[in-house]
Predict the structure.
Amino acid sequence: MTQVRVLFGAAVFLAAFLLFLVEPMAARQLLPVLGGSASVWVTCLVFFQTALLVGYLYAHWLAQRSRPVVLLVVVAAALASTIAWSTMHAGPLEGAAHPIGTVFRVLGAYIGIPFIVLSATSPLLQVWWARSESGPIPYRLYALSNLASFLALALYPAVVEPNLNLHTQRLVWSAGFVAFALLLATLAFRMRNVPPIAAAVAADPNTQPASLADKLLWVLLPMGAAMQLSAITAYLTANVAAIPLLWVLPLGIYLLTLIIAFQFRFTLPWGIIARIMVVLLGGLAYSLTQTGKGWPLWLTLLFFLLELFFACFFCHSEAFRLRPARSSEATLFYLLFAAGGALGSFLIGIAAPLASTYNLDLPITFLVMALLALAVNWRGAWNQRLLWIVASAAMVALVFMVRHAYKHDTTVATRNFYASLRVTQDLFSYPGATVRTLMNGSIQHGTQIFATDELRRTPTTYYALNSGVGLALQYCCLDQKGSPRQRNIGVIGLGAGTIAAYGRAGDHIRFYEINPAVPPIARNVFIYIRDSAAQVDIVEGDARTSLASEPPQHFDVLVVDAFSGDAIPIHLLTAEALALYRKHLNPNGILAFHISNRHVDLAPPIVLLAESAGMEARRFDVNEASGPGEYISTWMLVTAAPQFFDLPDIAPHAHIPAPKPGLKLWTDDYSALLPVLRWRTP
């Protein structure tokens, strides 16, 4: 019997470990190609939660029958899918025009069947255990699976990604899946003579079935936790700190609350939880209304992650408290639990961007949490009912207050899969001038000062005349007499169209932009493009996919400006991407990479790319803003014409970046952000 228990534990642990190891592996190709925004990862969460629901439905169906053959057939199909995935060629994908469909299509094709098999393992084996030992459902196996998930989540960015390329990762994962399949087949063989679950029901006639209210809460409580996870992840990465891999923290806390609730069965007195949740919800509610102000980074992260912990702990511990007593209802419990998780992630990841112009996900999530607390305590003491009635009313008011705060000084607002964009208008920064700024969360993507004609046409923010890109555009194209000639300029990332301010008569500027909501704003709200003397074109879609389908463009300067946001589109910084850029560059053309980022240092990977292609790279820093609307900035210029860096107006600003020992060349099959993260924000 001990041997069988070890097999049960090993199968559950390995299934969960593989499940959470495959998530970042499969999403790795999607995150960069679809713009690297928080919405990409949140949509991946929707897929994972939906696939988990399908897996639990499969487990629920299989638990009603004693048919190991069916399980073995499905496992064989999963093995075939795994082998096909492990041998596929890594590379960029198309699908920027239909991002949600691309996420579901690609992830479904890569890992759909294996994911379903792995996700079904924990609830299915718990039922098998209960049937084989004629005992209660061992809910600790569910906590064991979450412990394995937590371990896999921590190991991927710290150990797996920095040391293994994507192809090797898939091979190792596939080998692990083969081992899991053998374990599951062994258990299925041992369970072949155990009666189906109907017999277990007959053997335990005294237990009461779960009520309809309990079953409803089995859905609503995990729905609230999943909404918290999705909304807080998106808010932190878009509005608080544009830190790559930051999504690991909320997901880790979410899993931790599952482990505490299901494994340790630790509970706090409801009075303590209520007081903590009220304080946290109140404090965060206040912070959401202060759109123009901010707390220190560490305090903001601490408050949001604490609120996430207590909210998810409340949801998961209450769901566990309401778990069914009957073995026959165990898989139904997990099925409804998964349905709630899928519903919560769907509401935030897909429905919310379609329903509201402004990003109100977080205040609505807080409202849902207050209503859930009210529902759980409806039959309790009157003071708790009163507390959460008042809290729910306050959260309703919060939704309207946050919407009003977002509308303040906002002239244009739009939201889609890629971003929640706002154009703010400031009348006070410069006397007698109007300043318009394009915002995506807390990230500024361009500013224009509407005052004199000269100031209106002056490039601002990261693109000032003394910035790296400003110097490249001014000195890239001089004839033998030192006079400027016509230029052909490519730009990846449109923003407000600030680069168009450099356009002269006869120049051609070609922008590449993945977000279809940006070009109308750049053309109609800002006037850099309208006022430019150059011919300006805008190509919509993923830049690398667009460049791959075009004939050589012969750019004098190709600006790559896509690295200041919450996730880094690494497919624009690989050896294959550089080869594509060179195809479109003139022989002495210049690549200008905008790498202003507080949390990641992209200079060392770019130096390696330049060296691998026989090119020279220099770093250009603006450490103090001097002109109107100018920001500090960091640019990397890369060229095969090193004499450019010797020009009298260039040499004083050009610096050779320090190499980073042990860093490997990034390719479509290998990259790792962890080695280039800044652990101390400058």
Observations:
- The first helix runs from residue 2 to 27.
